[in-house]
Design brief:
Shape: globular
Number of domains: 1
Number of strands: 0
Largest sheet: none
Length: 100
């Protein structure tokens, strides 16, 4: 299935945050988990195991090819994801998708 057909929870959460609205804590934790796992996988694919989130694997593949996206995702850490950072991640991901 094409990513654009049905937005994944990761992208839905980023879109909500980018519009200056809040998301439930459970979704915020999921968002951080996807980004944390993706960064780990991009650095070391051997970290993939049965607990790895599928969205993290997809994002990791993009991170390996896009320095801008990797930089944006790398700024997240364990803190709150601001609307500005959510927009930056979405923008970097969009630019990468267009140049593929």
């Amino acid at each position: 299935m094409d990513r654009d057909e049905s937005p994944a929870p990761f992208h839905v959460a980023l879109r909500i945050l980018s519009s200056e609205r809040s998301i439930p804590e459970k979704l915020a934790v999921y968002l951080r988990d996807v980004m944390t796992q993706a960064l780990q996988i991009a650095s070391d694919p051997d970290t993939i195991d049965g607990e790895t989130l599928p969205e993290a694997i997809r994002l990791a593949l993009d991170l390996r090819e896009s320095d801008a996206l990797r930089a944006a995702v790398g700024m997240v850490g364990a803190g709150t994801i601001s609307a500005e950072l959510a927009r930056e991640i979405l923008s970097a991901e969009h630019k990468f998708a267009v140049t593929r």
